[in-house]
Design brief:
By secondary structure, this protein is an alpha+beta fold. It has four helices and three strands; from the N terminus they run H-E-H-H-E-E-H. 60% of the residues lie in helices and 15% in strands.
Length: 78
Amino acid sequence: MGKKAYTKCIELMKLIRKNGFEKEIPFIALKEFIMKEIGGDDRVIQKYFKLLREFGFIKLYGNGVYNIIDIEIKERLY
């Protein structure tokens, strides 16, 4: 994936943190953020869940909850 997808992930994670999710986020809340900010199609939602994991922004913690990885470090790497 290119820089545009990475940039969208960064912006999405900034919005998520701005809305009070600092350390972890439930699956359903993350899905709603993706639907509102990027697109509601199932393929788009699945794509961005995959990208967020592959880029290292989130990690499955268990039982439908994701840990949020520090995005400031990720911004400097790209």
